[in-house]
Amino acid sequence: MYWTKPSCVCLDTPYYNTGLASLCDVHGKMILSDRYVGHFNKSVSQQDFVDFLKGVGVMSRVIINECSAYDNPLMKAQQWSSQGRWTINSINVDWTIENIDKYLATDETNKKLAVAELIWPVLTLACKEVSLAQYRSNGRERLLQVPSMLVQHLKAAAWIPGKDGVFRKPQDMTRDMLPDGFTYDDRNGLLTAIGFGENAQKQSAEHQARETKARELGFKSAEQAKHAMELLQAEKEGLLQITQKVEFPDTPVRDPARRSSKIAEEVSTARDKTYETRERSVRTSKGSVDAAPYLSNLYTNEDGQMVCQGCHREMPFKKRDGKPYFEAVEAFGRKHVHKEHPAQHLALCPLCAAKFKEYVKRDATAQESLKEDILTTPEKQFEFDLVLDIPARFRFTERHLLDIRSVLSTQVQTGV
Ligand SMILES: [Zn+2]
Fold first, then answer.
1. Ligand 1 center–CA 311 separation, angstroms
2. Is the peptide bond before 14 cis (omega within 30 degrees of 0)?
């Protein structure tokens, strides 16, 4: 048993729960003996005893002390001078808790919690002046003000416990995260001074900015704008999937020469496109060939999907008879091909058909260059660039390409 001065002793259970007993290595005080328990009575209660101990200077809590601003690193960073004459108007004040760096450096959870429980009430009940260190040599000099040492220490350390038991820096906390026993009270402005809740506030400011931006763009909210972006992205990916999924059909030719001559023969014996003059010119020969079965046979892949030569996607819908709807569009006008033959038709979806008629069929130059392309295409090249409303690549199966070339070259050879 030791006998010592009250100032060298700290108070804790069983008399009054302060948490100081677990922090002796920081504050260096001795723990009050428990021998007084059992000696309280009607004339001296335990509370009287505690009050007496506090009164004579036994440590029962941490205290914010005034100190010199000389050691404040932020003050040192200022353009300050301690040279001026010291007068009654001189100010040199800073605030801290003795050993605050050591308190905040504890790393055992129970000690950290004891530290937080010691500091929190002291901080929220302190006067607002303790947030600032102030300095001036005399009344003629500018008053320098920087955050106090107390604020700087409490701002930099992850010392405030959350409901989840994790200790965080004040900036990373919010009011809702505080556990029981830690009441939010910022009337003295010190929680603001140490940056409590700063990041959440910043995020909410950013959130606000996003909301404003979204509304400027015509959306109801940032959430709606985000949803729209996701839809766009999904649509883009969906289209990609469709493009990738569909196999382009393949119709290899075993004997190209034989096939060519067969087509040539067909063409030479084919019926001319004939016209009669009526109110308007009506092509009467059109019904003599049905290109649909020819094209549907060529452009249906092994999965039973019929594919458009223009956009390489599956035909958009099925007819009442269950067959895919497509348009058999004549590739060339009478000027280039004057015979009726199924091979001079293209298998197109309605959209590509309309575009082809508009941009190629009705444009003499485009017709000429398509004919040239087909006649001079290198072997195994089945695609042609065509400029519609946007650049497109028209694709043929090998058989169709050979057939249409034969149709064209027969026409050229016969000199029509
Ligand atoms: Zn198409």
1. 4
2. yes
Q: Tell me the pTM.
A: 0.52
Ligand 1 centre from 236 Cα, in Å?
A: 17
Distance 272 CA to ligand 1 centre (A): 30
Distance 373 CA to ligand 1 centre (A): 20
Q: What is the pLDDT of residues 367-411, one digit of tens each?
A: 998 999 888 888 777 888 888 888 888 999 999 999 999 998 887
Contact indicator for 95, 130 with CB cutoff of 8 Å: yes
Alpha-carbon distance of 200 to 209, in angstroms, equals 14
Helix (H) or strand (E) holding 192: helix 190-193
- Residues 384/377, Cβ–Cβ less than 8 Å: yes
Spacing, Cα 185 to ligand 1 middle (Å): 68
Of 167, 160, 218, 166, the residue nearest 191 (C-alpha)? 160
Give the residue extent of every domain in the chain. 1-61, 63-196, 202-243, 250-273+286-413
**Ligand 1: distance of its center to the CA of 232 in Å?**
22
Q: What is the pLDDT of residue 318?
A: 93
Which position has the token pair 């530290």? Answer: 115
The first and second tokens of residue 323, run together, are 């067959």
Per-residue pLDDT tens over the stretch 252-275: 888 999 999 999 999 988 888 887
